[in-house]
Design brief:
Distance between the termini of chain A: 11 Å
Radius of gyration of chain B: 32 Å
Oligomer: heterodimer
Structural class of chain A: mainly alpha
Order of helices and strands of chain A: HHH
Helix content of chain B: over 70%
Number of helices of chain B: 25
Largest sheet of chain A: none
Structural class of chain B: mainly alpha
Largest interface: A-B, 25 and 23 residues
Distance between the termini of chain B: 86 Å
Shape of chain B: elongated
Number of helices of chain A: 3
Strand content of chain B: under 5%
Order of helices and strands of chain B: HHHHHHHHHHHHHHHHHHHHHHHHH
Largest sheet of chain B: none
């Protein structure tokens, strides 16, 4: 491995350390969002719930999906940083 | 600096300088003490940052079991070799309300027993080997580790340099005393009997107060004893004095503590004074007992250093045996002697500088004080929105009997919010500077939460000036428009009240509920955007239909902006309050929070889905 790459790797490691967002934490958040997604998908079509409750579930589901995208992007940024 | 300190310091420095000039051996001993104390500081620093986890975890497990508390005191002091650090952490925990006074006292009793291990280590090992051979590599490894970026390596580095300096200090003392023999002999002092005992006890107290370490005094006296610089009986008196003198650290540490912390410090003084007094009075009995025990343990009759270590252990066990049955009585006496802190709305109830000694204690008091500020802030916001605080029976919000004026909101802000906010910000800043506090993310979140709460209160004053007249006017359309504004805020207030209630529940249960609350708060952002858009078009409609004058409409639009600001501040505060209690995922959760653009994106997605729905059904 070239010296430049090693230095970059160390710099990435140091910056990760400084930011303090660990992969484990992001993965934990993604897992939590997946669980929420499943629950909300079920609620959004549950005919035993009122239309208002189903609409609430749909809105929350849309939020969760955006958050999932952000979390996945965050994880991918971290992976790219450490493999560049 | 007090008058005494102004005189004592130059006298001490002058005395030391004179001693150094007269005797090189004295310089070596004094340098040994200085290096030893430096080692203690480094060791304590290393333990404070490294032990952040286990010591606090253990302290939490103690609950109210006396046996476990005593054991914790013994084990932690044996491991850290510093009863002062254990005392300070106990004061810190007690002042944060994490342990009870009787548990704290039991830990202190245990710490006194644990401190005897130091004398055994030095007498049995330190005086027999050349410690500088071990010290030098430790110092090198320690410094190398301290230069690392990882906090745990740095802490380990502090520990190694600490032990290295301790060893080096002891070696200096040994060398110094062996050279001092020809120049000075404490054994040649003209005092005898009880006068000599009192004198040497006083010497032990003074030495420990000056060095703020009973360990240093004990090491000094053990080394002196090993070189026949002091009579065995006099050395025992110094050990008793060191036990009494060590309470000074706890007294100093409790100055900034609340009543609970002060009670523990006084309890520490009482315990050590009683133990010391009993040991001094029972010395004629204790000496033969120690001799008998020493013979039983196979300690040679002329091995006075090990016998001193044994004596130190015996009289501390005696102290615990006397005081442990009196624990309840002592607790009651301390509670009576030092009354609880006066509770004022204007001063922090939970924050106290003693809690800065530990991350867990600092986080706990900040959480409690932030929640207190939040309750006050929500109360003011509700009143500013022309509601009485929630009825404890029905949970309903009712209109107040009379107006909460703008002046009252302003006064309430200054008396109930500003002072607490100032105190929280100051405390968190101090925590950032204290080496003992390592995990600072929760504190950062609490500061953010209180900041947003303060913003909400300040903005609610601006909203109040038009809201109150509108709610009490006969203009139906205006009344409805302003009522709708405050309803949006009320929903967020209800959510935050729920968050505070859950904060005091079981952490695992709370974590699940908190994750749901986070989504609920994000959902509120979305609803707020919808409500704002709806309110905008309704206002335009009212202007077009001449239901309101343009002046009333522009005021309403301004107030809609204020209402949105209040609700967003409350949402941000709620999120920060939750994230402060989810430290493991806090930063990641912060980074996935919805921005304004994200909210727009979600709304667009929902609008697209809604328009596609009828097509799909068709």
């Amino acid at each position: 491995m070239k010296l430049e790459k090693i230095v970059q790797k160390i710099a990435n490691f140091m910056s990760d350390d400084a930011r303090g967002v660990s992969r484990r934490a992001i993965k934990q958040v993604i897992k939590g969002l997946e669980e929420k997604q499943l629950k909300l998908e079920a609620h959004s079509i549950d005919l035993e719930l009122s239309e208002e409750e189903r609409q609430n579930a749909r809105e929350k589901l849309a939020i969760v999906k955006v958050q999932q995208e952000k979390a996945v992007q965050l994880l991918s940024n971290k992976n790219n940083n450490s493999t560049d | 600096m007090t008058k005494f300190q102004r005189i004592a310091l130059p006298v001490l420095l002058l005395g030391l300088s004179l001693g150094f000039w007269r005797s090189e051996a004295f310089l070596t001993v004094a340098a040994g003490v200085a290096v030893f104390l430096f080692g203690m500081m480094s060791l304590e620093r290393g333990f404070q940052s490294l032990s952040g986890g286990w010591m606090e975890h253990w302290l939490q497990l103690v609950t109210n079991s006396t046996g476990r508390s005593v054991s914790l005191g013994v084990v932690s002091t044996t491991l850290m070799q510093s009863s002062s650090l254990v005392s300070l952490l106990s004061i810190s925990f007690l002042s944060a309300g994490l342990i009870s006074l009787s548990s704290g006292l039991a830990i202190i009793f245990g710490a006194n027993l644990g401190t005897t291990s130091g004398a055994w280590l030095i007498a049995g090992f330190g005086l027999k080997v050349n410690l500088s051979d071990l010290a030098l590599p430790m110092l090198v490894f320690g410094i190398v580790l301290q230069l690392q970026s990882r906090p745990s390596w740095r802490s380990l580095g502090h520990l190694l340099t600490g032990i290295g300096f301790l060893f080096l200090g002891i070696q200096f003392m040994k060398d110094g005393f062996s050279n001092l023999q020809s120049q000075m002999q404490l054994t040649a002092m003209p005092f005898q009997g009880f006068t000599a005992l009192l004198l040497f006890t006083g010497l032990g107290i003074i030495a420990t107060v000056v060095m703020q370490s009973s360990h240093a005094t004990l090491i000094l006296i053990l080394t002196a004893l090993a070189h026949q610089q002091i009579h065995y009986e006099d050395a025992l008196a110094v050990a008793i004095g060191a036990n009494i003198g060590t309470t000074v650290t706890a007294i100093l540490g409790s100055i900034s503590a609340n009543a609970a912390g002060k009670r523990l410090a006084l309890g520490h003084v009482v315990f050590n004074l009683v133990t010391g007094l009993v040991a001094l009075l029972a010395l004629p009995v204790l000496i033969p007992v120690v001799e008998l025990l020493g013979n039983g343990l196979g300690i040679a009759a002329d091995n006075y250093t090990l016998r001193l270590a044994l004596f130190h252990t015996v009289f501390n066990i005696l102290g615990v045996a006397i005081m442990l049955p009196q624990l309840e009585r002592l607790t009651k006496w301390l509670e009576k002697r030092i009354p609880a802190d006066t509770i004022s709305i204007k001063i922090p109830r939970y924050l106290n500088d003693a809690a800065l000694e530990s991350t867990l204690a600092a986080t706990s008091v900040t959480r409690q004080e932030s929640q207190r500020l939040t309750r006050h802030a929500l109360d003011i916001v509700l009143r500013a929105l022309d509601w009485e605080p929630r009825s404890s029976h029905t949970g309903l919000l009712l209109p107040p009997a009379k107006e909460f004026t703008e002046k009252q909101i302003e006064d309430a802000y200054h008396s109930r919010i500003k002072t607490l906010y100032n105190a929280i910000v100051r405390f968190i800043s101090l925590a950032h500077k204290t080496p003992g506090t390592t995990e600072l993310e929760p504190l950062r979140q609490f500061r953010s939460a209180t900041y947003h709460m303060v913003e909400a209160v300040k903005t609610s004053r601006l909203l109040h000036s038009n809201l109150y007249p509108a709610l009490h006017s006969h203009h139906h359309a205006l009344h409805s428009a302003y009522d709708a504004l405050r309803q949006d805020i009320r929903e967020v207030v209800t959510l935050i009240e729920g968050i505070i209630a859950k904060s005091n529940n079981d952490p695992i249960m709370a974590a699940t509920a908190f994750n749901d609350n986070l989504l609920e708060l994000e959902h509120q952002k979305l609803r707020l955007d919808d409500a704002h858009e709806r309110a905008d078009s309704e206002t335009e409609h009212m202007i077009r239909e001449h239901i309101v004058t343009p002046a009333q409409a522009t005021s309403l639009m301004n107030d809609q902006g204020y209402a949105r600001q209040i609700a967003l501040s409350l949402i941000n505060a709620g999120q920060a309050l939750i994230l402060a209690q989810l430290p493991q995922t806090s930063k990641a959760q912060t980074m996935i929070q919805l921005s304004d653009e994200d909210v727009t994106q979600v709304r667009q997605t929902l609008a697209t889905d809604a328009s596609e729905e009828p097509n799909r059904e068709a």
